[in-house]
Amino acid sequence: MKRTPCNCRLVLATAAWLAAAGWGWQGAGAAEEHAEDGRPGECSSAVQQALGESLTPLERRLMADAAGERLHEFPLWDAALVASGVDDPLVLAHYRRQRDQWVDALRQSGVVRGGPRQEARAIFEFLHAHVLTGGYSLPSTDLREAIDRGRFNCVSASVLFQCLAEEFGLEVCGLETPGHVMTRLRGAGGPLDIETTCPRWFQRLDSPGAETGPGTAGQRPTSGAIGGPATPFVPQDMPPSARDEKAGAHATPFVPQGVPPGEPLATRHSSLVTRPAREVSDVELLAMIYYNRGLDLLGEKRFAEAAAANAKALRLAPGHAAARGNLLATINNWAIELGSTAHYAEAADLLRLGLAIEPGYEAFRLNWVHLHRQWARQLDLTRP
Hints:
This protein is mainly alpha-helical. Helix content is about 55%, strand content about 5%. The protein is elongated, with a radius of gyration of 23 Å.
């Protein structure tokens, strides 16, 4: 059966991203042994070619800028747009002008005054009155959708608020809770955590018993947007009692459902979360954007792009467990899709890479055995 060269290149690209992320994975030798058309000598050049093809010029600059875990060349505004998919400097300049118009409007209004809390409230209420007017939308991580259509989730709303607040000298950072992202304001008589998806958040803070309306974060679905740790990546047919086990620990062999992706960042109210919140850097916020993109792409079965998005998230935040889990789920489900269409060699390449990355991932082991049984049966049927 003829092999599909692009699949091998994409597998190698994923391997290259993992190496760049600093993972001590065991698959370098395996990748070299199974380079395109089986020629080990071409592995290095194939990896470099695949890696180059997976990044836009702006992404190359962004990844280089974020290598020290902090942004130096890119402001968060530009970086988040690049992570959202902007690949044209002219488009980037267009959105930069839009931000400047909002900042000018705020300055001319004279409402940004007082202490840090008062200034933050003025910026926050301007954002929800004039920008985030399209309502909460779970998949709306892309900053362009928030800017152009006013549709937002916890990631895009937090990034936009943080960018505007920094224009006025406020000290802010991202705040991650399990499955959710908020913004933390410092220097306001102690840290002040701001739920950026709730338009009436400051009214709620000032009047705890007040009705906050449909924008209240606590009324969002718990399967919300990206950023925080996702649920374990277990097979869909796993009993509920097993859902706290390691991803894939009880996977069934080569099941059509594969391994479901993790949840995006949910929009749960912070008071409903038992684990403590964690401050995150701008680079980690960018990783969340890529992670959410990976979830959307995996749901659409665009496996190559999903793998690339999760690998980019891991390049920015090597410790992002949810992105790692979704990368494994992507490899597994991509292999299942290829096996179901009799592309056995390509499916085997993916499972081999998966086992090199995570030898204990049971879904890979079981699907590896089942794939080769199917492959052998197919060969028997085609023998004269």
